Amino acid sequence: MRATITRYVAWDLLKVFSRTLGLLTAFFLFILIGTEAQKMNLGPGPTVQIMQYALPMALAFAIPASGLFAVCFVYGRLSADNEVVAVKSLGISPMSLLWPGFVLAIVLSLVGVWINNVAYSWGQTGMQRVVIQSVEEIAYRLLRSQKSYSNPRFSIVVRDVQGRTLIRPIINFQQNNDMPPCTVTAEEAEFRSNLERGTLILKLTNYEIDAGDGFVMKDTGSMEREVPLAFASAKEQRTGTPQQLPLSQIGSEIDRQREEILRLQQSLAAEAAFELLSGDLDALGSGAWENKRLDLQGAHSRLNRLRTEPWRRWASGFSCLAFVLLGAPLAIRFRNSDYISTFGMCFIPILIGYYPLLMYGIDQAKSGILPPYFVWLANVICGGIGLFFIRRVIRY
What we know:
Number of domains: 3
Order of helices and strands: HHHHHHEEEEEEEEHHHHHH
């Protein structure tokens, strides 16, 4: 009898979970793609391309919510139909009903860790790459409709666009590490992407370049200038950040970062000793010394973020188990056949309690104030409250 009940509950949970997962994944996928497309002015082609990269992120949101909805639906209905009472009257512990939900949550949590790893290391990087490679299409669309295109590093204003030719463009390059600021005006201009080289080729005709320091260069001929696609894109290209690294690489990256910190510390100690021995105390307060101190501070900050990232992905993945531990006993205690109400009564406290605690733990761990394992604080509290209610369901 106990095995029959367990199989019945497990099958019911799987059916509800699979249906809910499909609907919620489609919903989150639509939100993610729509937000990115609107923010970056993507056309139909790039929007379709980012769908595959947005899918892991949508699943990362949908799996915990679907698991919570499934247990609220199944256990709420069982309790409202007095099936829990009937099981107890047969001398069978309510844990026979709860075990399928907990086993499903553990499996989903392990899958969730893998999904989070793929979403951050592959999905976000892929979406960023699609946006950067689409800069030519985005820029031409905005120039045709608004006569301007800009980002913090690069901007163009035109009088008109005829085909692919820009009429009377004014192009501003902002100050950056690769080039000084300058303003370029031309009679005509055209640009095209070179995806193999990762550059945007800008062709100018009858142009004038004003570097702003009195240097002006004019030419009635043509000139081609290459700029990196990431430089011309409205989306900043971030590579090698802790968030983009897969879990398999973070350990070795932590070791390299510690070696870098040790190198910076030894360099600062040697320079400080030299300045003290030479009596040049003013050098210790110079801008160069401050820049090196900031480099060391940035290296420590990166190490903290690297150490936090594995804990964050595991904690985010196991949010599914925490939600089920809380949602299953509460659904039984509420004894409400209206599964939407039951889901709302479980999800709203999670929304206003779990996620702020999770973000607090992540922020404090990344800043180095708290150890990295504090990102599990929200899971521990949520799961602890759930265990308290599970005990009450079993006893009463």
